[in-house]
Amino acid sequence: CVVSATYVPPPHSTTKPGFPVPMSTDNPGVRKAARFGVYRYNNSSNDLFLFKESQITKAMVQIVRGLKYMLHVEIRRTVCEKREHSNLDSCHFQKKKSLQQILRCYFEVWITPWLHKASVPTVVC
């Protein structure tokens, strides 16, 4: 996976190298990082159904040995069962009230594009 963050501080900025900066929640890199967080959550949960991101409420990125994304993400239960190994893009959110579940999560996702490596050391929901 190749992820790009194009943040260039203005001249005379008080932003220091390595300092987290806000990112648009619509940024493709942010969205990809959120999906990595969701995959990690799904792999560690005992839920029968897969969850997927419904909203990214806050995103920050820090450039340190790659890109460290700090994300506040709302995830919701889908109709796809884990054993189906469905592509999350084709999974719809639960419509049945009794099966609906929404979680607010914080993910830290480290992406090292030149090594084609991503890790998710922090998942708190």
From TrEMBL:
Annotated InterPro entries: Cystatin-F, Cystatin_dom, Cystatin_sf
CDD domains: CY (cd00042)
Annotated Gene Ontology cellular component terms: endoplasmic reticulum; extracellular space; Golgi apparatus; late endosome; lysosome
One BP annotation, GO: negative regulation of microglial cell activation
Domain named Cystatin: residues: 15-125
Domain of life: Eukaryota
Molecular function in Gene Ontology: cysteine-type endopeptidase inhibitor activity
Gene3D superfamilies: 3.10.450.10
Record keywords: Disulfide bond
Family statement drawn from the similarity comment of this UniProt entry: Belongs to the cystatin family.
Protein name (record): Egg-white cystatin
Organism for this UniProt entry: Alca torda (Razorbill)
